[in-house]
């Protein structure tokens, strides 16, 4: 995986880019980064796909501006411009948790760039807790982040995200999660992100009401024991509101089915992509325009 920085407009974004062929754009969850997708990205490259895994503005190694609106329009616009720079026209966009709602926003706001959508335990269908807007309250966000970054607290939060935390919540995972929550730059960016929460909420921006407009193949993957965005309230709602969506439930999985059921997840994903991206590529090659 090639790590690089690309300046898009006024912001510098970090991404991992590898492979050749139909392209999959990978969007990470809250307090995550492109690195979270590395095992899936490597599996996709081995199967003949190009993968672009981007750190969202305000996260990972991308810029963390204090004055950015952090809206759907900004983030999706940056992804579209990033694809322009990389010479990519259309992608399957796949998002986990927070990244899921950005994947949906991209499919609605830039439909010409999206050929299919994969949501993994997606945000956007649960009522947001008041703490998500804590950036409007001085000192609250740094205090919460300081507490969350205590090793015991970080471990407890991660334990709640897995069915088998004794297997998957390793010291390395804990340290990577903590790193996203410490330091002045992270605190200030997450505070700014929180202040603008209404601008990246599916319901409040009106995008949730438009989900019925989507006409691209959509795969939804949920863990049956997800405690962050539960299957019953979030997964079922997403399947009901997204036109033609296929919901697949992974047994004995929490919020990270791509981690707790890696083999099954990758098999499901490859089958979906073979039926969408590869089919679209063959269709394009068979058209008269493709022969010119």
Features:
single chain; 292 residues; alpha/beta; Rossmann fold; disordered C terminus
How would you sum up this structure, described in words?
The chain has 292 residues and is of the alpha/beta class. It has a single domain, classed as 3-Layer(aba) Sandwich (Rossmann fold). It is built from 12 helices and 8 strands. Helix 2 (72-86) crosses helix 3 (98-109) and helix 5 packs across helix 7. The protein is globular and about 50 Å long. Residues 286-292 have low confidence and may be disordered.
Q: What percent of residues are in strands?
A: 15-25%
**Gyration radius, rounded:** 18 Å
Number of strands: 8
Work out the helicity level: 40-55%
Termini separation (Å)?
A: 34 Å
State the low-pLDDT regions, or none: 286-292
Q: Biggest β-sheet, characterized? A: 8 strands, mixed
Number of helices, counting only DSSP H or I runs of 4 residues or more: 12
> CATH homologous superfamily, by name?
Alpha/Beta hydrolase fold, catalytic domain
The third-level CATH topology is Rossmann fold
Globally, the shape reads: globular
What's the domain count?
1
- CATH C-level label: Alpha Beta
* Protein structure class: alpha/beta
Overall pLDDT confidence: 90
């Amino acid at each position: 995986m090639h790590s690089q920085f690309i300046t898009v407009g006024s912001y510098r974004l970090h991404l991992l880019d590898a492979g050749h062929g139909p392209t999959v754009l990978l969007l990470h969850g809250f307090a995550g980064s492109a690195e979270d997708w590395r095992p899936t990205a490597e599996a996709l490259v081995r199967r003949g796909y190009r993968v672009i895994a981007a750190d969202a503005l305000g996260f990972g190694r991308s810029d963390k501006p204090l004055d950015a609106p952090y809206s759907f329009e900004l983030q999706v616009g940056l992804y579209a411009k990033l694809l322009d720079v990389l010479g990519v026209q259309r992608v399957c966009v796949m998002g986990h948790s927070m990244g899921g709602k950005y994947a949906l926003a991209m499919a609605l706001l830039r439909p010409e760039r999206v050929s299919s959508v994969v949501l993994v335990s997606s945000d956007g269908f649960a009522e947001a807790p008041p703490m998500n807007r804590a950036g409007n309250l001085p000192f609250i966000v740094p205090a919460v982040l300081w507490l969350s970054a205590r090793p015991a607290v970080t471990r407890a939060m991660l334990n709640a995200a897995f069915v088998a935390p004794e297997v998957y919540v390793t010291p390395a995972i804990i340290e990577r999660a903590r790193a996203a929550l410490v330091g002045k730059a992270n605190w200030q960016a997450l505070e700014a992100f929180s202040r603008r929460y209404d601008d990246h909420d599916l319901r409040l921006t009106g995008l949730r009401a438009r989900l019925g407009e989507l006409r691209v193949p959509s795969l939804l993957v949920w863990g049956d024991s997800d405690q962050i965005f539960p299957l019953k309230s979030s997964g079922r709602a997403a399947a009901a509101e997204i036109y033609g969506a296929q919901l697949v439930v992974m047994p004995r999985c929490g919020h990270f089915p791509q981690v707790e059921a890696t083999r099954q997840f990758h098999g499901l994903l490859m089958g979906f992509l073979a039926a969408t991206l590869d089919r679209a590529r063959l269709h394009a090659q068979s058209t008269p325009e493709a022969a010119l």
